[in-house]
Write a structure and sequence with these properties.
240 residues, alpha+beta, Alpha-Beta Plaits, 6-stranded antiparallel β-sheet, 6 strands, 42% helix
Length: 240
């Protein structure tokens, strides 16, 4: 009888302990659903957004605000180029001369060297007037030329000469003149005496020297301050 009572009490005690464990510790089991030190499992929807996503979103906003200035960047970049072109040194190719001698050319070349990018010297042949010759028309022979000379003497005309050799052989010369006005005066005197007179320009081929150059800055190139010969001029020429 006692054993049966103890058995019943043990069963009742087990039932009570089981009920307390099942019902009395619900909060503890709910609070500690995982073992200590083990991270809790979460749904993907519960996780916070990654840091890279936040950074990309933050950088997207400034880029959107700076889109407008960047669109004007080409115009700003072109501004220095435009100002550079406006301030660029201008140049033209020009020629100075003619110089009478190579020494004159050398002096000018030395004087202008600091203001010139490039220079070259050149020589040309030109025809210059040596003077004016007043004379009678050529005679067919020397005897006819002497006869004309005697006629001039008979009219009191002096200062004549019979050319006996060369290209102007058998011509009566009445004078050489550098000034054309004096040559015309002499011609008119002989014409007034009744003779046919010719007035011929005498020329010769002589060298002349030129200096072609490219100034560093044509707008501020004052070659007159360094080359003081009034006979020297300038004109534009083809670049070299």
């Amino acid at each position: 009888m006692v054993l049966r009572l103890l058995f019943v009490l043990l069963i009742a005690l087990n039932i009570a302990v089981g009920a307390w464990l099942l019902l009395g510790q619900t909060d503890t089991h709910a609070r500690f659903s995982t073992d200590p030190g083990v991270p809790k499992l979460r749904l993907l929807s519960e996780l916070p957004p990654p840091a890279t996503t936040v950074a990309q979103a933050a950088s997207a906003a400034p880029s959107a605000t700076t889109a407008t200035p960047s669109s004007t960047a080409p115009a700003t970049a072109n501004a220095p180029a435009a100002s550079t072109n406006a301030n660029a040194l201008s140049y033209t190719c020009m020629a100075l001369g003619p110089f009478a001698t190579q020494e004159d050319l050398r002096i000018a070349r030395t004087a202008l060297g600091a203001q010139v990018q490039r220079m070259r010297a050149r020589q040309e042949q030109t025809t210059q007037t040596r003077g004016w010759w007043v004379h009678l028309p050529p005679s067919p022979n020397h005897a006819a030329a002497l006869a004309q000379a005697r006629q001039l003497g008979a009219r009191n005309i002096q200062d004549y000469f019979v050319v006996s050799a060369g290209d102007n052989q058998n011509t009566v010369s009445l004078g050489l003149f550098k000034d054309p006005a004096n040559a015309r005066k002499r011609r008119d005197e002989i014409v007034a005496a009744g003779f046919q007179v010719q007035m011929t320009e005498r020329t010769e081929t002589v060298p002349e020297y030129w200096l072609d150059l490219i100034p560093t800055d044509s707008k501020h190139f004052d070659w007159r301050s360094r080359v003081h010969d009034p006979a020297i001029g300038s004109h534009s020429t083809g670049c070299f």
